[in-house]
Design a protein that fits this description.
Structural class: alpha/beta
Radius of gyration: 18 Å
Number of strands: 9
Order of helices and strands: EEEEHHEHHEHEHHHEHHEH
Distance between the termini: 34 Å
Strand content: 15-25%
Shape: globular
Largest sheet: 9 strands, mixed
Number of helices: 11
């Protein structure tokens, strides 16, 4: 008998050549709260384990957003890759003020482990995604090969994908990509607000662990990163995303176009219309590494 919490199936939908299943379980990383996630599995007749791509959604989103709107599933099925869609924060933690703003608290976990006492029990999304979900899914006997993982995301989730990839001491993920990521969060209002709220040391504590631009400036190992953003994105125009800062730091650290590719796209915005336009590119990018 496994000591991991049992997964409860909430719903199952056939999609393309596969199935999207929503699961629920009691999450220790999130302080004993119920956690939901969606898992897309391509139909796999021989029972062999398949590689997995983890999708991290943005502010206000849930485990359903990317699954329903991203345009990922058909391409993933064609490449025989599973996609894991976690939630974006704990739900129902009951911390005073967590529901006051759309860009902090519920739906805005920022894929970090909180150190401020009022948030530290529940707001541990980094551990939830990198440790807990793989353990729970493996314990349930679902045929995923967690030795072949990659990660991608949008906006706040793009920040999560880049930082979880770059900061992994075990090289947990083979590649990372992002749509309109918050690339330099210690230097933008969204990131400053999140880090000051969740971390005892604020942006100083966040710099080397949760700021992709700072981390890549000190990264010397070979890496595989793709970033897309649109010039019509209002959050880009407002200075929330700062992809140029990330690209400059990457080049100065010696990472060339083959290791870090940042593409700007004229007039595209921050929405899932933009994401779905380039979804296939991202799945195929990760397939190069997941199927190697």
């Amino acid at each position: 008998m496994s000591d991991k919490p049992a997964l409860e199936k909430v719903s199952v939908n056939k999609a393309f050549e596969g199935e999207l299943t929503k699961y629920k379980f009691k999450s220790a990383a999130l302080g004993g709260l119920d956690a939901n996630f969606n898992l897309f599995m391509p139909f796999n007749n021989n029972g062999a384990k398949v590689p997995v791509l983890v999708y991290l959604a943005g502010l206000t989103c849930t485990e359903d957003t990317g699954a329903q709107k991203g345009g990922f599933l058909g391409v993933a099925a064609s490449q025989n890759i599973a996609i894991l869609f976690p939630d974006t924060s704990p739900r129902g933690a009951g911390v005073p003020g967590e529901d006051d703003d759309w860009d902090f608290g519920t739906g805005a976990g920022f894929y970090i482990d909180a150190t401020k006492p009022e948030y530290a029990k529940h707001y541990n999304m980094a551990t939830h995604i990198t440790v807990e979900l793989p353990e729970v899914i493996e314990a349930a006997g679902i045929p995923i090969d967690f030795k072949r993982q990659s990660v991608f995301g949008h906006s706040m989730g793009g920040h999560g994908a880049l930082t979880l990839y770059l900061s992994s001491k075990t090289k947990q993920y083979r590649s990372a990509s992002a749509f309109a990521p918050i690339s330099n969060p210690t230097q933008c209002p969204w990131g400053e607000k999140a880090f000051k709220g969740y971390l005892q040391g604020g942006t100083t504590e966040a710099l080397d662990k949760y700021d992709a631009t700072a981390i890549i400036s000190k990264t010397t190992d070979p890496i595989h990163i793709l970033i897309d953003y649109g010039t019509g994105d209002n959050f880009y125009k407002q200075g929330q995303l700062l992809p140029e800062n990330f690209l400059k730091a990457a080049r100065e650290a010696g990472h060339d176009e083959f290791q870090v590719r940042v593409r700007s796209h004229d007039a595209y915005d921050h929405s899932y219309y933009f994401i779905s336009t380039f979804a296939s590119d991202h799945i195929h990018f990760h397939a190069n590494f997941l199927k190697a």
